[in-house]
Structure formats: structure tokens, C-alpha cells
């Protein structure tokens, strides 16, 4: 059995510097692993560094020290372009908003995501895209462009986009914040049926408790909750 973590952070520290102000230390010596297929939530106070952690795993930020590995590949000493390549192969990202290409319909957004490295042929892409949208209860909005979707519908389309390429890990940051409690729970439960690792960042402890492993970010580190 392959037990190599899909995400491994070792001794990761990150601070931000603003001109004329002392640096803000956000993460300090974070050790964190996510196993293949593991469903984990990450809670923590506002400003504690949850989105920063997600950006480091996605290779959108570089740590000041420590190492980040995703899908068994180290992101250290890689160019931005190389990190983007690793991200495209291994990682799905769904954020609270601004996930979608504005001039493409919901279905076309998903189709585009299917095209990157998946074995779905061009011919089957529209059907597969529609199935993914239906899975999240937005099949009836397949032909809408993002500005004609509600906030909650756009978030569900974004989840379909993020898992379309069957990434090894889904990074989801407050992805159901605009949904009513019942729909949010249903969408999270749907995400949990996908056979990939999930790191779900939220302030909503009730939703965070639906997953199997729970972490919190406090005092610049990740610890089990
Ligand atoms: N690019 C940046 N430049 C300067 N400071 C930043 C930058 N990005 C984040 N920060 C700071 O780092 C800290 C952590 O931010 P982050 O967004 O990771 O927190 P969070 O836990 O996701 O917060 P929230 O729950 O409110 O979304 C905050 O104090 C924020 O102001």
C-alpha cells in the first residue's frame, strides 16, 4: 500500500514584510502531512494563516524556510512555472470566489479543467462536465456564465472545476460560505465521497466536524483539534 503523504510540510515558516512595518510572522515551523484520500479540515482564528498555508501547498507562495512536498514532489528550488506545472498535475483549488473564467459557461469552465491531463476525450467532455455539475446540484445552470450564477452556485461550479482533473489533493478555502446550512452540508458530504485527499479550510466548526481528521492553526502552527 502506498502510504507516502500527498502533502508534506516540514518546518515551514512564513512571514510577510511591508515597507516601514515590522515583519508579520504567520507560520513558524509548521509540520503537516495529508495522506492519500485523507479528508481533513483546518480551522483557526481569522488571520492565523490558513489561506497562507493553502497558498504554500499550492505553490503560489514560497516558504521562508522549510520544505513543501506535494504528490511526492518537492516544490523547493523550483521556478514559478515549474510550481505551476506541479500544481496542474496534482492539486485542485477552490476558493470562496473568483474561481471561474468569466466569459465561459459553467460547463465550459469544467470542460477546460477536464482537458488538462485527464483521460477524458474531447468528445465525452460535455457529458462528463454536466455530470460533475449535477453532482453538486448545479446541472441546471450549465449554460450560465459566472455573472449569471448566484454566489453559492458559482462556488459549487468551482468545486466541480477543482475536482474535474482528479487531482491528488483538493484545497478548498471557505468554499460553501455562501450556501445555506443544509446545502452546504450536502455539498461538503459530496466532496467527501471523491477519492482524493481534501484539505477543507473553514470557520464553520459544524462543517469542519463532518470530515475525518481535524486540525487547527494556532500560535503559528498546525495541531490536531
Ligand atoms: N501578501 C501579504 N502581505 C502582507 N501580509 C499578508 C499577506 N497575506 C497575508 N498577510 C497577513 O498574514 C496573516 C494571515 O493571513 P491569512 O489570510 O493566511 O489568514 P487566514 O487564517 O486565512 O484568515 P481568515 O480566516 O480571516 O481568512 C494576516 O495577518 C494577513 O494580514
TrEMBL record:
SUPFAM superfamilies recorded: P-loop containing nucleoside triphosphate hydrolases
SMART domains the record matches: AAA (SM00382)
Record-linked Pfam families: ABC_tran
Gene3D superfamilies, per database record: P-loop containing nucleotide triphosphate hydrolases (3.40.50.300)
Assigned keywords, A-Z: ATP-binding, Nucleotide-binding
Superkingdom of origin organism: Bacteria
GO terms for MF: ATP binding
PANTHER family linked to this entry: IMPORT ATP-BINDING PROTEIN (PTHR24220), TRANSPORTER, PUTATIVE-RELATED (PTHR24220:SF659)
Annotated protein name in UniProt: ABC transporter ATP-binding protein
Organism (species): Agromyces neolithicus
Amino acid at each position: 500500500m502506498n502510504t507516502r503523504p500527498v502533502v508534506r510540510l516540514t518546518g515551514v515558516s512564513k512571514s510577510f514584510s511591508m515597507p516601514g512595518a515590522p515583519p508579520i510572522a504567520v507560520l513558524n515551523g509548521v509540520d503537516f502531512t495529508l495522506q492519500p484520500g485523507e479528508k481533513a479540515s483546518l480551522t483557526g482564528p481569522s488571520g492565523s494563516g490558513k489561506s497562507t498555508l493553502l497558498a504554500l501547498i499550492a505553490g503560489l507562495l514560497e516558504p521562508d524556510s522549510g520544505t513543501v512536498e506535494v504528490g511526492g514532489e518537492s516544490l523547493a528550488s523550483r521556478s514559478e512555472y515549474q510550481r505551476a506545472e506541479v500544481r496542474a498535475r496534482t492539486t485542485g483549488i477552490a476558493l470562496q470566489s473568483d474561481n471561474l473564467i468569466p466569459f465561459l459557461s459553467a460547463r465550459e469552465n469544467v470542460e477546460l479543467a477536464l482537458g488538462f491531463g485527464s483521460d477524458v476525450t474531447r468528445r465525452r467532455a460535455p457529458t462528463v462536465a454536466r455530470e460533475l455539475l449535477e453532482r453538486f446540484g448545479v446541472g441546471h445552470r450549465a449554460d450560465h456564465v459566472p455573472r449569471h450564477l448566484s454566489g453559492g452556485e458559482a462556488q459549487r461550479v468551482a468545486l466541480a472545476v477543482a475536482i474535474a482533473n482528479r487531482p491528488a489533493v483538493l484545497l478548498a478555502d471557505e468554499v460553501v460560505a455562501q450556501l445555506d446550512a443544509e446545502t452546504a452540508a450536502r455539498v461538503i458530504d459530496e466532496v467527501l465521497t471523491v477519492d482524493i485527499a481534501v484539505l477543507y479550510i473553514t470557520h464553520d466548526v459544524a462543517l469542519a466536524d463532518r470530515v475525518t481528521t481535524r486540525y487547527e492553526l494556532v500560535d503559528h502552527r498546525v495541531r490536531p483539534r
